[in-house]
Amino acid sequence: MSKSTESRTQKPGTQGGLTRRNVLRFAFGAGAAVALSNPLVAFAKPSASKETLNELSDKQEEYEAAMAQLNQISDEYQALSVEADQTKSKIEDILTQIDDTQTQIDDKEQELTAKQDELSERLAADYKGGDQGLLSVLLASTSFEELGSNLFYINKVNDRDQQLIEDVRTVKASLDEHKADLEVQRKEQEDLAAVQQDQLAQMQDKQQQVQDTVNNLDEEVQDLIAKRDKEIAEAIAAEAEQKRLAEEAAKKAAQSNTADNWPKVESSSGSSSGSSSGGSSSSGGSSSSGGSSSGGASQVTGGSAQSSGGLTAAQRNVVNACKSTGSPGAGLCAAWVSNVFVNAGYGFVGGNANDMYNAYCYSSNKSQLQVGMIVAVSTYNRYDWAGRTYGHIGIYIGDGMIMDNIGSVNTQSLDSWIAYYGDTVTPRWGWLGGHALA
Description:
About 65% of the residues lie in helices and about 5% in strands. About 20% of the residues are buried. The longest helix is centred in the middle third of the chain and has 118 residues, at about 145-260. The chain has twelve helices and five strands.
């Protein structure tokens, strides 16, 4: 049967000469072509080089070890400082005791001098009076018993005076000995204090050396983090480019397979139908279909974002600030955005990327995306816990390009940015602080 005859005598279940078998053959052929020509399934997660990651890991270990050493030295220094303070307190207490003891010694010396002077005066008076004093006492006695009693009391007075003098001398000697002991203790504590001060000085020197090491390692780690983030950004851009090329190749392969496998019919209507179906196949791209730009959670609707032409002065200020504002460091994407708007003269707006996303990002329609708007996600799974917790944010600068901070200021296509960061929530955009620049 000729093709023209077949087209005129269709069986039930056919359209324009297309049997179910032909339709299935076409569908399988087109699907297989797309699957085999699309290498997306082979893409690995964008990452820095193994050499950079290993070097960063080693430096981080060195940094952590140096920090542990610094903390240990700080603990030891603190403990030694407490001991030195206690030694100073002991010296202070000993000096107080020495002063008190010396005061007591001075008092006893005065008392001893007074007793000795009193005894000397009495002996001198007795000497000058000769035995008259003793004789008068004896002659004044009216009986033998009174005489013995007077002699007894005279001897007692002399003995008591002598004992008082000896007691004062004994106390003074004891005080002198106690003072000598205190002086020894003071010397020992002062020697200990000197040793402790030397130890503290040595520990301070060691602490400074380790601190310098920590500072140097911190700079090296930060440099390696920036290097890693730059390599990741380059890998992201390379992956996005590979995806774009793969999508183009898949699209061409699907169109080619459609032409090869679609059954030919003589009627003009059949040819038109095949062309229409082919157009339907090619409309699977995000820009024309208005569907997801990257699949998954990124339900960004189609349309064209604003170009870089016809900008307001406010928009140009933000774009210029984007290009002149440096990176504040890795993990500070929202801080960079805040700095850009401050440098552009529009005030400070704080918060993390997820805060800004929730507060100011309201649209996922590209046709509503204007230059100077922030573009953000509240979370994503591509990187680490920080991405899941704080999300990510950038600023749209026109012509389908976006700038953000990933440890260094990065510029890439909006589509690749959406494809990478829109794996969990839909990327959205809006005016930071609610202030429209256009």
